[in-house]
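As noted in the main text, all predictions were made from sequence alone. Below is one such record, for Sel1 repeat family protein.
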Amino acid sequence: MHNLIKIFGLLFLTQSAMASPLSERALRLIQTGNEINSQGVVLSGQQLLLRGMFQLNDLDAAYESSKQTRVGNQLMGYLPQPAMANKILAKLLGKGYDPAIYDTALYLLDGESGFAQDTLMALNLFEESVKMYANPQSAFVAAVMRNESLVPGFGSKQRIDELITFAILNRVVGAQRYKDQYIDNRRGHLQVKNWRKWLDAQ
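Prediction:
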C-alpha cells in the first residue's frame, strides 16, 4: 500500500478534478481504524480516498490524501512523505483549490514541511484566497502579516482594516482580540515561532 500511494500520487498529477463528497466517509474510517487499532478499517478508508482521487476526480479526497501522506500512519507502518504530499498539494494549487492555497501559504509562511520560507509569496496566496473565495481565515492571516510587517512595504492601514474587519464580521476566532491588542492599541508585536501553531491556538 505504501508504494501504491506513492505511484497513485504521481499519477494524480496528470488528472483533472472535480469535487465529490466521499472524503468525509474515508476520514471517518481512517480515524475509527486508528482508534480501534484496525489496519483493515484504516486501509478501507485510504482506498476510498484513492478511489475518490482517481475514479471520481475528487479534490477533497486528493487534499486529504496529501495530508495523510504528509504525516504517514504509524499503525500501517507508513512513514511521512512530505515531498509526495507537496506534489499533490501543488497540483491542487494549480487548480485554484482554496484549502490548498491556504495550506501552501501557511507552509511558506513558516518555511516547513519541505517549503522554503517566502513571506511575500505566502501573503500573495492569502490575498488570492480572499479575492477568489472570500476566505475569512485567509483575511485574518493576511491582516496579521501586514500589521506585523512580515513583508516590508505592505503595511497599508486601510488594507489591514479591510481584512481584519472582514475576518471579524465572519467570526474568525482570535480576530477581534488581535485587533484590540495589536491594531487599535498597538501593544508591540507578536513573537511567533510557528504561525500554524499560533493560529491553531486561537
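The longest helix spans residues 39-54. The chain has two domains: 1-95, 98-202. These features were considered when defining construct boundaries for the mutagenesis experiments described in Section 2.9.
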